[in-house]
Amino acid sequence: MNIISHRTFFPIFTFIVIIAILAISTCSFLSQTYATSTFSSHGTHHLVLFLQGITTTLDDQSANSGHIVGLGSVPETLHYVFAQPSTRLLEYSYSASSVQNGLPTPYTCTDTITHSLFSDIVLLDQQIKHAMRAQPAATQVDITLIGHSLGGVIALGYLAFLEHKGFSISLPANAHLEAVITLDSPIGGVSAGFLTSFSLLGRQILEHQCPAAKGKTFTAMQDLETIFHSASTTFGATGLAASQGSKASLLSIAPSGHSSATHHEASNQSVLERAKTDLATSVLTIGNLNDFLFDPKACAAVLPSFLDTQFLLDEGRGSGLYGRMFNSGPNICPSITRLTTLNRDLMRTTQVVMANHTAVLSNPSVQQGITHFLQARTNNHLGGTPIPLLAHRLP
Q: What are φ and ψ of residue 84, in 5° steps?
């Protein structure tokens, strides 16, 4: 048996006491932090849907878990932000959802590429309606949509068609679309050539991420080209120079028979300004300036212009419409240009491209900005300004 002498006992005892105090302090700090990161329901329930981007998948286990998974730590941030029993977190499905409770069904990476964007928006509309059936009767439900990459385009497109009306996109009477957040999402579309002159890089990267899509029609990307070339000169009430994300029209992907000049002329900015008034929905768009898709100056030899496709025009503090940016990761365009020119090391090219494109999902400032925005929004403010991020204001 080991005997501890009185000379060693007190230092050990003191050490244990200090550790205990630190542990208690840490627990207190965490509880205070998460307490400020959670919402008071005020009798209202929350439904949060997270939409992943192109080339992602959802397996049976994740689909049946009933919790968002995704990439990076944004899903975990949402778990902390909405840490209350009255909130339900769901993953969006590019395939279908349970009619009884809105749970997503598994989908493949091919589903994210070959569907039209409007059909994806219809799937989101159906999933929201299905999920609402699992809510307590006569309960008011505030809905938040947050999407990465293509998922953000679908989320914002849902809001645009919801505002425009006439497309069988609607909310149940007891539901309110409170906020939409897009993360590195080309809401202004992509320039023509993404799958043609740009195919040596764009198509190869997507097919490297999703080999099953090789040889198939990339319908979602074609729709993004339609959005890009629908750019309007009408930006709503601001009268200011706007980004491509503001000028383009998500309504331009309306199915045949519904399309009209009005749809094409209605810019994202003007439609969302109306939605802010009509539906009381706030929007936050966030993009990484070092995402290679949006840096034409450094990548001019390889890429068409993608600058500003991921932003709305930021209308300022308390406005409810925000275009925000951050910087994360290296400027990888020179290495991409070199690798593409030499036509080698596609795996490495894909790795560096995806690292910057998914950085928005784990950047601490982005997480803080999302939390600040959502907290203010649910406290009856029209979207708190995400202070850790830079406002995107073009001259």
A: -155, 150
Looking at residue 178, its pLDDT comes to: 92
13, amino acid identity: F
CB atoms < 10 A from the CB of 365, how many? 17
Q: H or E stretch including 112?
A: helix 109-114
Residues facing residue 286 across a β-bridge? 183, 324
CA distance 118 to 120: 5
Q: Please give the single-letter amino acid code of residue 67.
A: H
Residue 94 DSSP code: S
Rounded Cα–Cα distance for residues 290 and 114 (Å): 27
Token pair of 334, please?
Answer: 């020179």
HSE at residue 9, side-chain half, CA atoms within 13 A, is 5
Tens of pLDDT along 112-132?
A: 999 999 999 999 999 999 999
The four Cα atoms 356, 361, 366, 367 give a dihedral, to 10 degrees, of -160
195 contacts 221 by C-beta, under 8 angstroms: yes
The torsion angle over the Cα atoms of residues 179, 181, 185 and 187, rounded to 10 degrees, is 30
What is the distance between the alpha carbons of residues 261 and 387, in angstroms, rounded to a whole number? 38
Contact present, 255 and 223 (Cβ < 8 Å):
no
CA–chain centroid gap for 327, Å, is: 17
CA distance 123 to 110: 16
Q: What is the pLDDT of residues 83-121, one digit of tens each?
A: 778 888 899 999 999 999 999 999 999 999 999 999 999
Give the start-end residues of each E strand in 80-166. 87-91, 141-148
Those residues whose C-beta lies under 8 Å from the C-beta of residue 294, and which sit 6 or more positions away, are 287, 288, 306, 307, 308, 309, 310
In this structure, how many other beta carbons lie within 10 angstroms of the beta carbon of residue 376?
18
Beta strands 390-391 and 321-326 are antiparallel
Q: Are 382 and 193 in contact (CB under 8 A)?
A: no
Q: DSSP assignment, residue 40?
A: -
Lowest mean pLDDT among 30-34, 83-87, 310-314: 30-34
Residues, the chain: 395
Strands across the sheet containing 87-91:
87-91, 45-51, 141-148, 175-183, 282-288, 321-326, 390-391
Strands 282-288 and 321-326: parallel
